[in-house]
Amino acid sequence: xxxxxxxxxxxxxxxxxxxxxxxxxxxxxxxxxxxxxxxxxxxxxxxxxxxxxxxxxxxxxxxxxxxxxxxxxxxxxxxxxxxxxxxxxxxxxxxxxxxxxxxxxxxxxxxxxxxxxxxxxxxxxxxxxxxxxxxxxxxxxx
Length: 142
Prior knowledge:
By secondary structure, the protein is mainly α. Helices cover about 45% and strands about 0% of the residues. The protein has one domain (about 1-140). The chain is built from 5 helices and no strands. The chain is globular, with a radius of gyration of 14 Å.
C-alpha cells in the first residue's frame, strides 16, 4: 500500500515538474491518477502533498519551484477563529481562488479534474472534494 502511494506521489511530482517546465503560458498542467474517492488521505497524498507537504505545512518537494509558497494547511482553523473553514476549502478545491491570501492560480483547481475521473457518477466529484476537506481538518494544529 505504501509503495503504491509512493508511486502515485512520484507520478504526481513528475507531472507537476513537467507542468512547471513550461512556464511560458503561466499555467501549470497536472494529470491526476485515479485514487479512491473514499480516502481523503490517499487523495491528499497524491494531489496535494507534492506542494503542501505530507504534513500540510507547505513544505512539499515542489514548493521551492513555485512563485508563491503553498499555504500552510495546518493553521486553517486557527486563522478562522478556531473553526475549520470547510465551505471555503470545498469552494477552493472546486473552483479555485482569485484571492492571493487564499492561494493563487498556480494551485490546480481539482473540481474539474475530479469530475472527469468517474463521469458515470456525478456524485464522485463531490465525494472526493468532501473527503479531502475532511482529511485537511485532521491536520489542524491544536
